Amino acid sequence: MADVILKDIRKSFGRVEVIKGVDITIEDGEFVVFVGPSGCGKSTLLRMIAGLEDITSGTLEIGGSVVNDVQPKERGIAMVFQSYAIFPHMTVRENMAFGLTIAKASKEEKESKVQEAARILQMEDLLDRKPSQLSGGQRQRVAIGRAITRKPSVFLFDEPLSNLDAALRMDMRMEIGRLHEQLAATMIYVTHDQVEAMTLADKIVVLKDGKVMQVGKPMELYHEPANKFVAGFLGAPSMNFLEVDVQELGEGSAVVSNGALEPTTVKTRGRTFTKGGKATMGIRPQYLKLAKAGEGMLHGAVTLTERLGTETVVDVSLLSGGKVIASFDEDLILTAGERLDLTFDADQAHLFHADE
Amino acid sequence: MASKLTRSNGAGWAFALPGFILLFLFIILPFFFAFWFSLTNQRLISPNPTEFVGLSNYENLLGVSILTLEPERDEAGQVVRDADGAISYPRVRTITRNPDFPQYKGMREWFRWQSGENARVVVAKDVVFMKALTNTMLFVLIIVPLQGGGALGLALLINQKLRGINAFRAIYFTPVVISIVVISLLWRFIYDGDDGLLNNVLAALTFGAFEPVDWLGNTDTALGSIIVMSAWQAMGFHMVIWLSGLQTIPATLYEVAAIEGSSSWQTFRYVTWPGLRNTAVLVLIVITMQAFALFAQIDVMTNGGPLDSTQTLVFQAVERGYGKQDISGGSTISVILFFIVLLISLVQRYLTREKR
């Protein structure tokens, strides 16, 4: 068990800096998810923690000691890869015992640790199979089993579910969550899938272009995004952004409007705006409701509907130009071109600087 | 849309026909001719009609017996010794030319060993063929591990990301693209007994203490010299095959090994070598087959000498067929070689089969 502390971590490949000063503190036993679009440096960051990439500058502490120049095996970590990285010529048992084989452990030790890992992962009956006889999910379980037998203090997961199909992904996601409760080890998990991030994490780190955008609990990030990027990245469909004019400024709030939006009072959440200036208002599709006659706050017309049974996702083109997506939690039949008046709880709206 | 030409079976056959005719005329037909000729007394140019002789060609090549020679004794029954104290034996020809022993007729001594006071002499109908057979076997036995192992070593060296690595790849591959005849001529200078490069280098390295050796003119060193030179020549070719095998091994497997703290040797044993299985089978079979076909080096460098110490099967086949115009003898050697290579390939395939 160990905490992981990153202080001003930087990484350059040649002249290109890909990690631009990252500070993250990960508590012992915490499940932390690094999330971000591809190319944001999240995998590189994980590989630096693993010791597979050198750290250009900054310090990395695991369990209280600086490990910048410590070999991967001395760091007390185990890693699970997107491509499983299990050995095709070895049986499941041999794969799971690989680390112990390398460490020249005794046969009895290997057998007992493999049995324990197999029990945890419920795959005792698969131990004598070759990887080619396993499904994708089972292969990834073997890789996780190999990590468990090491008894690491920190588990590193590099997009472990990205190669699995949707149904299996959900099963494995729950299994990894269960595993975290069972082992109570520190886990660092990299993904580009925000659902995995939201469901698994104690703490989410949102990364963009090698920088930390926001760190916090999933619901904090969802409800109180620090910036427009985080607001847009978490949640599906993603948050709608409207260009608005600031008409009035109040105590912790501002009145904004545009050609399609009636004047609305939105909390500024610590940001400062200038009267008469521009701003960006964000509102999640799920908070948009159909308005009763005469109560509409946002005016537009239907361009496209996607009926998902219990949910209807509607593309709305606004009168002022631009568009929003609305997600209604009922099955609605709307025709393209139909005029649509929407309303929303202004407390759920966010106001960002126009240039953010 | 596929054109009529590519969809039509007839057109395909028509295009394949010229190549097929050539293959048939120069590979398939001679293959069956060789079987037929080996059962006749066919000569290259002869006024006499060809006769069917059954298996006598094979008997003439493969006939081997062991003679036991008792020491010569004087009237007192004492063993006769020569001036050096060596026991005198009757000459082998007293038996092989004795009409009382028709089964040994025409045989000559191949080699002998001492058994108590008696000498055991292995006599063969065709000593030169036997030497060619053993030399070829020896050549194959040594060159397979030497060339295969050396090529793997080179492949591991050039599979690194180093500046200028392509220059090394090119250099190691150069001998492959140079004609074996040219290389054989060059190495004749290297191996030259009077003023050869090798002798000069060795003399320089030992400050003149090294006694010059006539590498190709000495029965002890001639075959070894040809083995070394042959191994060097084709190493680059197999290096490329190994390299392609190395590059199919996923990098993540090496990362797993690194995380587990695997040593270089363990990484090779558990990751690299199992990943090269199929490549190894290919390299093994290709080197074996090429080695059995050893001819050009012998023809250019030693002509089978000195004292038949570098005779090989293919060289003998050519020598007999065209040198001595004995087509049936050459064909018989070819057929024997075919069965040897076939047998060895089958054994290799069996030993290296995928174990389930």
TrEMBL record, chain A:
It holds the Pfam family ABC_tran. This is Carbohydrate ABC transporter ATP-binding protein, CUT1 family. GO terms for cellular component: ATP-binding cassette (ABC) transporter complex, substrate-binding subunit-containing; maltose transport complex. CDD domains: ABC_MalK_N. It is a peripheral membrane protein. It comes from the Bacteria. SUPFAM superfamilies: MOP-like (SSF50331), P-loop containing nucleoside triphosphate hydrolases (SSF52540). It is found in: Cell inner membrane. Residues 4-234 form the ABC transporter domain. NCBIfam families: PRK11650.1. It comes from Cohaesibacter marisflavi. Belongs to the ABC transporter superfamily.
From TrEMBL, chain B:
Belongs to the binding-protein-dependent transport system permease family. It holds the Pfam family BPD_transp_1. It comes from Cohaesibacter marisflavi. This is Carbohydrate ABC transporter membrane protein 1, CUT1 family. It comes from the Bacteria. Its main location: membrane. Residues 133-348 form the ABC transmembrane type-1 domain. The chain crosses the membrane at residues 12-37, 137-158, 170-190, 222-243, 279-298, 327-347.
